[in-house]
Amino acid sequence: MGSQILKISPFASSSIFNASPFLRFQAKTVVTISKTQFRSNPLISSSGFVPSSDNKRGLRGGVVAMASATGGSVQKSEEEWRAILSPEQFRILRQKGTEYPGTGEYDKFYGEGIYQCAGCGTPLYKSTTKFNSGCGWPAFFEGLPGAINRTADPDGRRIEITCAACGGHLGHVFKGEGFPTPTDERHCVNSISLKFSPANS
């Protein structure tokens, strides 16, 4: 079987290239995928959304994988996630829990750098997109291109946001709340779902 070469350019915004040498390198990555290894997931549409009718109980104990902004994915069983995450990280990232408002370490933190997924290390947000919403959780007005998936909750009332690489639960996104941000969106993220990487590191 032959192979395909895909040129991945997830960082469409020119401003992202000022973030760090790591991100500049990621934007130029060329990924080779063997046709015999690549299998499409019928539960994930071309837009990256997972239908809300997906029965999450059916995934218990199995391997969960999602496409990332850099073309890679993180595949781990439930047992492997339990081994590398703290109980609270597992509860939130893998079981879609929520930390208490005002308790997370990044709620009122405004250092310069990149916020990564605490589960797999995928870059998710630039610190320049973080703002004080007063909600009790870290708030961002946009994520890095291709890094975050959106899925309607089963009740249809909220939109869940997850890491595109590992499927880890981040929180929810809200639109039209009137915050003076460029996107009029608020990504309400659990601090424990994030790991901060300073700009000078």
From TrEMBL:
Keyword Transferase: no
UniProt entry tagged with the keyword Cell inner membrane: no
Enzyme Commission designation: 1.8.4.12
GO biological process, any: protein repair
Catalytic activity: L-methionyl-[protein] + [thioredoxin]-disulfide + H2O = L-methionyl-(R)-S-oxide-[protein] + [thioredoxin]-dithiol
InterPro entries, A to Z: Met_Sox_Rdtase_MsrB, Met_Sox_Rdtase_MsrB_dom, Mss4-like_sf
Cofactor (UniProt): Zn(2+)
GO molecular function, one term: metal ion binding
Record keywords: Electron transport, Metal-binding, Oxidoreductase, Redox-active center, Transport, Zinc
Co-factor binding comment: Binds 1 zinc ion per subunit.
Location of the MsrB domain: 78-199
PROSITE patterns cross-referenced by the UniProt entry: MSRB
Source taxon at top rank: Eukaryota
Job of this protein: Catalyzes the reduction of methionine sulfoxide (MetSO) to methionine in proteins. Plays a protective role against oxidative stress by restoring activity to proteins that have been inactivated by methionine oxidation. MSRB family specifically reduces the MetSO R-enantiomer.
NCBIfam families linked: peptide-methionine (R)-S-oxide reductase MsrB (TIGR00357)
PANTHER family tied to this protein: PEPTIDE METHIONINE SULFOXIDE REDUCTASE 2 (PTHR46081)
UniProt family annotation: Belongs to the MsrB Met sulfoxide reductase family.
Protein name: Peptide-methionine (R)-S-oxide reductase
